[in-house]
Write a structure and sequence with these properties.
Strand content: 15-25%
Number of domains: 4
Number of strands: 26
Number of helices: 25
Helix content: 25-40%
Structural class: alpha/beta
Distance between the termini: 79 Å
CATH architecture of the largest domain: 3-Layer(aba) Sandwich
Oligomer: single chain
Amino acid sequence: MTPLRILVAPSGFKESLGPEEAAACIEQGIRRVSGPSEAMIQKMPVHDGGEGFCRAVVSAHGGRLVHLHVTGPVGQSIKSHYGIIGSTAVLDMAAAAGLRLVPRDARDPTRTTSYGVGQLMAAALDRGCTKIIVGCGDSGTTDAGAGRVKIEAVCNINNLLCGERGVARVYGPQKGATPAQVDLLSRSMDSFCRAAQLSLGHDISHAPGSGASGGLGAGLLVLGSSLRPRTEAIDEYFGLGRILAQPWDLVFTAEGALDAQSAAGKMTSEVARRATQRGGMAAQTQVVALAGSIGDGAEDVYGTGVAAYASILDGPLTLEDAMARTADLLTRAAERTMRMVQVGAALGARTAAGLEGTAPIYEKERPLSFVTVSQMSTQRAITSVAPNASFNVVTPDTFLTAVPPAESSLPPRRARHRPGDRRKRVLGFLEKIPKDVDDWDDKTPPDEELWTLRNLLTLAHLDPEHRAAMSWEVLLLECTEHLRSDVFQTDKALSGFFVLVVLAASEVFLVSEKIRASKSRLNNALRLFLRSRPFVSEEAELGDETLKKFRSGCVMGTTVLSMLARLCLGNRAFVIPLLSKVALITGGAKNLGAEIAKQLAPLGAGLALHYNSAKTQQDATKLEQELKSKYPKVQVRFYQGDLTTEAAVNKLFESVKKDFGKIDIVINTVGKVLKKPITEITEAEYDEMFAINSKAAFFILKAGAKHVTDGGKLITIVTALLAAFTGFYTSYAGSKSPVEHFTRGVAKELQARRVSVNAVAPGPMDTPFFYPQESPEAVAFHKSQALDGRLTDVQDIAPIIRFLVTEGQWITGQTLFANGGYTTR
């Protein structure tokens, strides 16, 4: 067998992998599937002028590196370098002003600088260099190169400086700019262009390449430099065009993000264009693109020669986790892709058997044929890549009897019973599934559940004895497996993918439908399958807890879980809303704080729970045992302390940040109630009330404003008595009242960081704190003022907190009165 000729030509993944590392990962993934006798692999890392460009050029041409210290993008002194090849200096701006050099908490392109790039150029000129090559890519700045820059640049000439597609609007958000800062940067670029026009006598706002590296290209133009298309430069320095001109069977390329920008000059599309535009051999070279994320407009790369693309993600991940796992994810994605290529090759070999002298299988007289289970979205996706495809639609009533004929020709499809006793086993087991969801129990062994779901998902899978005789171009594969959730560890959770692998003129396309059933609710899984859409019902369980009211009644998030699943799923997938978030709850060991912790744990949040005194230790221990038994993968830590001093508050926040690495959410439930006539309140009681209810709340907000991550949440529990004046609660209501004003002020201060700050005001709560100071008559009165004639329960308030920290991002600076009508404000 002639081995496949495979070229691996990836770009880098920003802040994660360089092109060389990415190429090594892809090669490793391919080798897990295909040995040297099956695939001949050549690696060609593609440097686009970004990070690593200087080192690669110097290595390719026998130069040397010069190391020196320059000013970094946030003003710090950093160790950088440039290369010397004869009288030519080579540098990449990423080595002095790259995004990797900007700490995540300092990503503000209104404050970063490319001054260090000018220092590198000045150093090269001082050495007597007559030519300077600047690699423009992976920048962490948007300042139009307002440092000391000179000479020439290798860049993406499709990047413009101004306008709706200008550098500030397209790339500013990637570098940490808020919408307001994007507008500011865009106006700054416009001002720069007006000043440049006065100097140069012509407009550079839309000059090709002017937007490269945050506008560094425009700065170079002002100084009389030339901007060179990076594809030309890479051809010269690395011989990319010569290598792509060879007759490759398969080309792997990769980059960090695949979106509408990818088809407009990024190296992924350039590799595809050159690999597939070589005359007679073009139709035989297939290009597969792998990416860290799939964005809007990614499908535009099909027009550049890419045959298929996929996200490397294999599950819901935060950006930090995805970047930490990039090498492993890329290796696994390459392995999955290569396995799909093997399936396509096997189908092609089997189909071609006995067809000597015939034309390729993908022709009008031999259309592709499919079995599908009422999958209109699947049919549309397949038709988009195989317009002549025909479908045998199997309805839910007939899915157990449907099977393609065994003849080698392709006559119209007809229904047929499966041979053997497989159908009887399926029917027998289906009879055991209760019609009512609530009748199902956990006694059925998980393996048996898995076996049943597997049979439901392999409706048209051919029996082995029939497979060799079939001339189908489509094989239905089942990939059902146990889903061990990182958060819930529910061994019985099931995940089903039914994947159609379509062979069309040596091109492999993947079409996926994802269904997910929770725990042992297998009849729910059947319903979800027949509905043919991703869905989580309000009653579907995840672990031992029920996650209700997902956004739009179904799913949240936009990550891609499987190879090209976005063709059918519209880029939607299941996510855990607070996965990898850290929530600090003061007063979190019992009552309302404990209930909030119980509701955030199934959402994936790490929990830092504070309690005040040693007498609460028993409650903390009990809560810890409950949370860890239900959610063993959720990190839970307890902290004891009196928060009536700023030093104690700071110590708590620093301890949590040391243990968890960050704080995303702060929920303050600390409070003290005092019911007493004003004439009897002592100075000590007054000081204690304001120290707990007002002073502690102030310094918790202060510490939260300092430590919480951008986009974080600060929530304080206050009281409905802010709007209801009743006797004997003067000191309590008065000590809570300032918190409402703190909330409004801090919300304004933090809105630029997208941190929402709110207060929640419950009515009288049915907790042990309430009853000691109330008479039976007073309790009855308080109950009579609210819905259902009852007090507020902690389970009435905790879901509101859960909403604020997940979907309530547009609510800030507010006091939410949640008291069942106890007050009408």
